[in-house]
Amino acid sequence: QGQSRRDQHQKVRQIREGDVIALHAGVAQWIYNNGRSPLVLVQIIDTSNPANQLDQNHRDFFLAGNPQREVQSQRGERGRTSERRSTSTGSAHDNSGNVFSGMDERVIAESFNINTDLARKLRGENDLRGIIVSVEHDLEMLAPQRSQEEEREEREEEAQRQLERSPRARFNGLEETFCTRRLRHNINKPSEADIYNPRAGRVTSVNSHNLPILRYLQLSIQKAVLYKNALMTPHWNINAHSIRYITRGSGRVQIVNENGDSVFDGQVQRGQMFTVPQNFVVITKASNEGLEWVSFKTNDNAKINQLAGRVSAIRSMPEEVVANAFQVSVEDARRLKDNRQEVTLLSPGSRST
């Protein structure tokens, strides 16, 4: 209670492996790993979203530290060009530091009502730690326990659903509801899988229906788990591009463009990332060790159209149409339509002869 009187801050949200976290553009954020294992974050940034009023170059605005080396290596040629330009205009802006580094220390001191020594520390001139820093002692802050966090998020989710149903919801300012929005959804729970095949794997989707904030970000996420030698049916994304990040295992991926050309045909493994453009057909087969990935899609309610399986495009066509389109017999057309009764995830098995 004493701490709550001394310090006031916004919500501190607990995160864990498998969490999808959605943040609005321009939101200040920090992340602290209080666990016993490394924390790996995969970040997707959409520079074409309506909130971006700059150009298509992503920019990180750091509030603290001196991330000069990391930022320059990330910016590449653009960073070197900016550095040459700033060198010609003076040395005061040579560093890629935090936002305070470009301000006069006296103005900072006056703004915060502090002395200039402390203002100089805000500028981070002698801070060489970079983007990721080590905490000397564990952070002490007000944060709910895991069970309290989950209960609170359930209440927030229900409140958000009521807000979305309200006819006036679309006219409320974003700043009024951001702090009460549910920003996190765990995608690792097998019990919440949208598609499950005991012989092939599972698929879980997070979109604007179960995480409404994604409607503003125009993004959705899909987690796929393929068992040993299983396949994800050949399909295309109807209304989105897809960025895949392999999180576990290995397998083979083929991507075909509108001309029928194979633009990618190769093995993928943990840590690799690739893009599947809208309407390009992709097929994925897991290796003996299985394959898992996360797909980030550029639509808050991304949809796919499948080529094989019980809900495929070919299955929806008359046998005669299929037979004539592929120059096969009606019997073969029937096999094309009916030999796979599974949806999305296909179990491994011998091919029909």
From TrEMBL:
Record InterPro entries: 11S_seedstore_CS (IPR022379), 11S_seedstore_pln (IPR006044), Cupin_1 (IPR006045), RmlC-like_jellyroll (IPR014710), RmlC_Cupin_sf (IPR011051), Seed_Storage-Functional (IPR050253)
Region (Disordered): 63-100, 142-165
Residue ranges annotated for the Cupin type-1 domain, each copy included: 185-334
MF term (GO), any: nutrient reservoir activity
Keyword Disulfide bond among UniProt keywords: yes
CDD domains, A to Z: cupin_11S_legumin_C, cupin_11S_legumin_N
Keyword flag Disulfide bond: yes
Gene Ontology cellular component list: endoplasmic reticulum
Basic and acidic residues composition-biased segments: 75-86
Annotated function: Seed storage protein.
Subunit structure: Hexamer; each subunit is composed of an acidic and a basic chain derived from a single precursor and linked by a disulfide bond.
Protein's recorded name: Seed storage protein
Source taxonomy: Eukaryota, Viridiplantae, Streptophyta, Embryophyta, Tracheophyta
